[in-house]
Write a structure and sequence with these properties.
Chain A has 839 residues and is α+β, with helices and mostly antiparallel strands. Chain A is built from 24 helices and 24 strands. With 242 residues, chain B is of the alpha/beta class. In chain B, 33% of the residues lie in helices and 25% in strands. Classes of the chains: A alpha+beta (839), B alpha/beta (242), C mainly alpha (193).
Chain lengths: 839, 242, 193
């Protein structure tokens, strides 16, 4: 027998690796047996990791690559022509290292304002692989060969095998090429030396860094890093910040889950201790389970996120206009997301793990509920943190009427303080429920008292709800304060079935290459075209409308403008004349208009703004003095709000009545047109309109993606409610599942399903309401602090515009939904009344 | 040297007016190879006595020695190690970890003590075989009957070198035949050199012991005399105290 | 214990000699109730007299006589097996009387008296249990008989425990009109285990 070996004291006192292995093995078995109970945590982590991976991949890959234009070269220098200076530089650089010269000349595509480059480049050359690749055919190898991009090919109806006269030379098209880093790059590739008078000579080179200084005299050497440095807030940072916040939320939610899990396993853990497991082993059981959940969630999240990325990549490349590798993920962010997910789950489980070792073994073994842990009830630490957050946010904009720039550390720190402040306040808010409960009927009293007594577990749920609500309240309030300013009108510019046409400028400075009388190629600057007459513009607009099968409305710009300042923001937006056609177009009858009104508007609240000034005549810098030369201004013109007018920022949302035009002798001219069809315009329609417009000196403005204030507020509200309900669904289930034995007793004493339903409904409703209240309080603290010093964003007065509807939806609607759902789902009778199942 | 020795052990719960002596001034010594039963009604403090003897609880006063080692002053980790190596517990109804098979449950204390999985498993199998449960080794607790679960628990309590077996109503939830089987196994363990303490209110169980200590209100009030020989018993002239 | 019916039961298996009956009787009851020789033969004579059994030869010694059961005997046996023993009258149990007496005498600690009996009975049970462990593997009948004895003794211990508890309770609430005393017992005896 090796009994003597068993006795050996050489083994570590905590059992070492085999012990940890055994304990982890058990935790893994437990996870497999009970993964359904942990499904919500798992799902949360999976979704968070997947969203982070997909989101950060898109965000990081959306802008052109940092090294766009550099290829693989570390340095680049550009010259405007193949000057002697350029030649000297190239000779010097070639002496010191590797050089690749790319020459470009800009040519115009006939009948279009678009241009393309005639480019010479060693294909692909020492550095050029990332910026030049072959789609089909082969690279040009002689002076009579050319390869073109698909854009050029379609503009000139070219294909491989055809011949094409370019740069005065007839060449065979031998291949289709592309610039993977910029799919919009249109060029015709020829062999070096075939570009006469290049307008840009780019020298890509690699030399020892010691030689760089000597080489750099008199030229501007740029590196990919120097280009990227101009953008300090890169998408990686943003996605990481979002990730950290998300994981904090997940950790908070999971604490409740793991607490309940640890409680459910209390007897098993007591037994493990009686067998001789140390505290470390016990902690390991719970936190190993947490880590397993984290790892499984991280891996699932990665798989889901990566699959999503692969599926989305083709259409993403189209919209980003450059090729993106399948594996061009921000691996650091991906790695961090996975590590953070595991860490979040680990930390969420380590707190209950510690708590479980504090329970006396005898109590744990008997499965008696531990006496509720007294959590510090004082609200003081939470309040201190909230005040600190308030002060920091207050200074984030610089003291007194700052402009909102700078102060990023204060802003960040303030938000960082806000979260623990809310977390610390949660127990205090919960202790309030006990006072409320005293006069409530038995089921409600029981539910509320449980919330107050078991603050350790309900507290984390409450914090998670409140942080979810906080985020949405901040967005709601920020949006409300931002969009509350009727002068600085923000939102979508047009409806999707509208296009605005503005007077454009003739194309300038396009370099065209002509063959002179001697047959030589010469570069000439394109002559500035004549400015189009109003009639020509109107004809162009009509042509566009006809092409779109849409109606056209001429918008007259008056020789007058509105001005005013409120909350640090001044009037923005164009005003137009209320021509009879315009009024008819929008169905506004003359009888609806106050005959004394100067201005009609669809901007809500504009009629209530005082201090608005309407300048006309000479005061208008854009239009110059009117014919009579007698300009003037009107304070507080009579404004009437007409909801029938369009609300888009580029649409005629504010118009001057003909009454005012006559009264103040304001002149006007047609400079803009509104095209509107019966249905949304497609991208093809818009681009064909743009093509027409470019020849007619018009600019086309189509609907942009700027959301309106109410859209933002509604989405933020929805987000807050969904987060809060998700957290609630989980934590209420957890809080009540822990007291399932109590339910058993209740059922045995004859409690009806009404009691059970009330219990769950009250728990959900109370948690929801308290979380919402805490979140709203936190949100207001943050916004007051921030706006106090941030007059550009409206200042504190901007908070006067309370989004009552959305806030009450969060404060009352969400808890009500939670209560109703709790009521509906609490109907199930506990399956086993008598015996507890074997654990 | 006794395997288990309690000297003047008292345990007091609560404070002030609610103060209750669960056990008071208990002296008890259990030798290797002997089976001692602690008998008493509910609330007499017998379970407290067992948890203190097994280092799960601290006595308010008094000393507990297990295999010559004094428990007072030991760290939690040292006590855990002592439990892993010397003390086996058998509870009334809840003994096995649900996620582990019978043999994994049995070898768990060895693994916790740092013995490799393979070796621990072999020892666990040996313990199960010794108790006639080899064919149930790979079953999970919920696939075992109540009697089998208790027997696996005993296997775990005596696996390896463990030499102090503490059982709290080990057959409490079982019928008398299964309860008898459990006691028979405990007795067998004692014959193998284990010191065992069984706490029960059931005289039939207690009668398996070599010595029965009667507990009343936390005090050890009486104990049985050493047993007479079987020959004496078969003699019709059994002395009667009445 | 009815020796009469036990002998009838043995005879129902087939004709047997007197000494054989005695041997089998002792074995069947697991040697728990040792008999003297005379009892068996006296009983056999009575069975013969009552017409429940008969023997073929008259002259020989009782030990050599071959007995067989009669039809009346079979009927009597079958009737007896199905007739419950008379348990309606409580037996005059000495132990009960002793405890009752002790509880009335002011100078006697009734709990101590109870404990003396309890210890004695548990000791007795220990002996039976050990005996059973040693023998029962080979002798099922013996195990069954010992079980019966253990259950009987166990019931006495339980009665002693119950008496202990009842006396104790009575001591704390001497007058039935004072029900407030109850919580205080609870505290002193301690609910902790």
């Amino acid at each position: 027998m090796d009994d003597f070996q068993l006795r050996s004291e050489r083994r570590p006192s905590d059992g070492g690796l085999p012990a940890r292995r055994a304990v982890t093995h058990w935790a893994w078995r437990l996870f497999r047996r009970e993964w359904r109970q942990q499904f919500l945590i798992l799902a949360l982590i999976t979704v968070a990791v997947a969203a982070t991976i997909l989101g950060s991949s898109v965000a990081v890959n959306n802008p052109p690559p940092k090294d766009a234009g550099f290829g693989t070269a570390p340095y680049s220098v550009s010259f405007a022509s193949y000057s002697s200076k350029a030649q000297r530089f190239i000779a010097k650089a070639e002496h010191l290292g590797t050089v690749q010269v790319i020459e470009n000349a800009t040519y115009s595509i006939p009948g279009s304002i678009n241009t393309y480059q005639l480019r010479s480049q060693n294909a692909p050359g020492p550095f050029g692989a990332p910026i030049l690749s072959l789609v089909s055919g082969h690279y040009p190898s002689g002076a009579d060969e050319v390869a073109v991009t698909s854009g050029v090919a379609s503009a000139f109806h070219l294909s491989v095998g055809k011949s094409w006269q370019v740069g005065g030379v007839t060449r065979d098209v031998v291949g289709i090429v592309q610039n993977p880093q910029s799919l919009l790059d249109a060029f015709a590739l020829v062999v070096p030396g075939q570009v006469p008078n290049p307008s840009q000579v780019t020298v890509l080179f690699r030399v020892p860094s010691s030689a760089l200084r000597a080489l750099g005299k008199g030229v501007q050497i740029s590196t990919p890093a120097s280009v990227a440095a101009s953008n300090p807030l890169n998408p990686e940072t943003i996605s990481l910040a979002a990730l950290v916040l998300g994981m904090l939320l997940i950790a908070l939610v999971s604490i409740g889950g793991f607490t309940v899990l640890a409680q459910r396993r209390m007897r098993s853990i007591g037994m493990l201790e009686s067998i001789g497991a140390t505290d470390r082993h016990v902690r390991l059981v719970v936190s190993a389970n947490g880590t397993v959940v984290g790892i499984v969630g991280a891996i699932l999240g990665f798989v889901v996120g990566f699959a999503g990325w692969l599926a989305y990549r083709p259409s993403f490349e189209q919209s980003a206009h450059h090729l993106v590798g399948a594996f061009a993920l921000p691996w650091l962010v991906v790695l961090l997301a996975m590590v953070l997910a595991v860490l979040a789950a680990y930390f969420a489980s380590s707190r209950p793990a510690r708590a479980v070792t504090k329970i006396p073994i005898v109590h744990a073994l008997s499965g008696r509920p531990a006496p509720p842990r007294q959590i510090h009830r004082s609200a003081l630490p939470g309040i201190v943190l909230l005040v600190a957050a308030f002060v920091l946010l207050g200074y984030s904009g610089g003291t007194g009427g700052g402009n909102g720039s700078g102060g990023a550390p204060e802003l960040l720190l303030g938000l960082v303080f806000l979260m623990p402040g809310l977390i610390l306040l949660a127990p205090f808010f919960l202790s309030l429920t006990e006072r409320v409960s005293r006069r409530a009927p038995i089921a409600a009293r029981l539910a509320l008292r449980d919330l107050a007594r078991y603050r350790a577990r309900s507290g984390s749920a409450l914090s998670a709800i409140s942080i979810g609500v906080l985020i949405s309240v901040i967005v709601v309030l920020a949006a409300a304060s931002r969009f509350s300013n009727v002068l600085d009108y923000a939102g979508p510019n047009l409806a999707s079935n509208q296009l605005a046409l503005h007077t454009g400028f003739p194309p300038q400075g396009v370099i065209l290459v002509h063959r002179n009388a001697k047959g030589q190629l010469v570069r000439v600057r394109h002559h500035k075209t004549e400015t189009a007459t109003p009639a020509q513009l109107a004809a162009g607009a009509e042509q566009i409308a006809k092409g779109l099968d849409a109606q056209l409305l001429a918008l007259e710009s008056p020789n007058a403008y509105l001005s005013g300042t409120q909350g640090g923001r001044s009037w923005s937006g164009q005003i137009y004349v209320a021509t009879p056609q315009l009024l008819r177009e929008f169905g506004i009858k003359a009888s609806e208009i106050n005959p004394k009104a100067d201005v009609l508007t669809s901007r809500p609240g504009l009629s209530g703004v005082s201090g608005l000034v309407m300048d006309y005549g000479s005061g208008n810098p854009k239009r110059g003095a009117n014919q009579n030369g007698n300009g003037g201004s009107v304070r507080d013109p009579l404004i009437q709000e007409v909801s029938a007018l369009p609300s888009g920022t580029s649409a005629p949302n504010t118009i001057i009545t003909e009454y005012a035009m006559k009264k103040f002798h304001i002149s006007s001219d047609a400079s803009d047109w509104l095209v509107f069809g019966t249905q949304s315009f497609t991208a093809d329609q818009i681009s064909s309109a743009q093509l027409t417009a470019s020849t007619a000196q018009l600019q086309v403005e189509s609907r942009n993606d700027i959301p309106s204030g109410s859209t933002i507020i509604n989405w933020a509200t929805l987000f807050g409610i969904i987060i809060a309900l998700g957290v609630l669904a989980m934590s209420v289930g957890l809080v009540r599942s822990e007291t399932s034995s109590e339910l058993r007793t209740l059922a045995a004493t004859g409690a009806s399903s009404y009691t059970r339903r009330t219990l769950t409904a009250v728990t959900a409703g109370a948690l929801g309401f308290l979380g919402a209240l805490l979140g709203v309080v936190g949100g207001y603290v943050a916004m007051i602090g921030w706006l106090r010093s941030n007059s550009l964003n409206g200042g504190i007065s901007a908070l006067g515009n309370v989004p009552f509807g959305d806030l009450s939806l969060i404060l009352f609607g969400m808890p009500a939904i939670a209560a109703v759902v709790g009521w509906l789902f609490a109907s199930r009778e506990p399956a086993v009344l008598g015996r507890q199942p074997i654990e | 040297m006794s395997m288990l020795e309690l000297r003047q052990v008292s345990k007091r719960y609560g404070q002030g007016a609610n103060e209750v002596d669960a056990i008071a001034d208990i002296d008890l010594a259990v030798e290797r190879g002997s089976l001692v039963a602690i008998m008493g009604p509910s609330g007499s403090g017998k379970s407290t006595l067992l948890t203190i003897a097994g280092s799960l609880e601290e006595p308010t006063t008094g000393d507990v020695m297990i295999d010559g080692a004094r428990l007072s002053g030991m760290s939690r980790n040292d006590k855990a190690r002592l439990r892993r190596r010397s003390v086996g517990y058998v509870f009334q109804d809840f003994n096995l970890l649900a996620g582990l098979t019978a043999v994994e449950n049995v070898s768990l204390p060895l693994e916790l003590d740092g013995i490799s999985m393979k070796k621990a498993r072999a020892k666990g199998m040996a313990a199960l075989e010794g108790l006639g449960l080899a064919d149930r080794a790979e079953s999970f607790p919920d696939q075992l009957s109540g009697g089998e679960r208790q027997r696996v628990a005993i296997a775990r309590a005596v696996v390896g070198e463990r030499s102090l077996l503490l059982a709290d109503e080990p057959s409490g939830a079982l019928d008398s035949v299964n309860g008898e089987a459990v006691m028979r196994m405990i007795l067998a363990a004692c014959h193998g050199g284990v010191a065992a303490v069984v706490v029960t209110h059931d005289a039939k169980l207690a009668s398996w012991a070599d010595r029965v200590v009667f507990l009343r209100d936390g005090n050890a009030v009486d104990e049985t005399l050493p047993p007479p020989s079987p020959e004496e018993l078969l003699n019709p002239e059994v002395p009667n105290p009445s | 214990m009815s020796i009469r019916h036990s002998l009838l039961a043995l005879l129902s298996e087939g004709p047997k000699y007197g000494f054989q009956l005695r041997q089998e009787f002792e074995m069947s009851t697991g040697e728990v109730w040792p008999l003297n020789v005379g009892q068996v033969y006296t009983t056999l004579q009575r069975l013969e007299r009552d017409g429940l059994a008969r023997s073929d030869d008259v002259e020989v010694d009782e030990r050599q006589k071959n007995y067989r059961i009669t039809d009346e005997g079979s009927e009597e046996l079958s009737h007896w097996l199905r007739t419950p023993p008379d348990l309606s009258e409580p037996p005059r149990d000495e132990l009960v009387i002793k405890v009752l007496v002790a509880s009335r005498l002011p100078d006697v600690d009734v709990y101590e008296v109870i404990q003396v009996h309890r210890r004695y009975i548990v000791q007795l049970m220990q002996q039976w249990t050990h005996l059973k462990e040693d023998e029962s593997r080979f002798d099922l009948a013996f195990a069954l008989a010992v079980d019966a004895e253990l259950f009987r003794l166990d019931s006495v211990v339980r009665w002693l425990d119950a008496a202990d508890g009842r006396l104790r309770r009575a001591a704390y609430e001497p007058a039935p009109e004072n029900p407030v005393a109850l919580p205080s017992i609870h505290r002193r005896t301690g609910a902790h285990r």
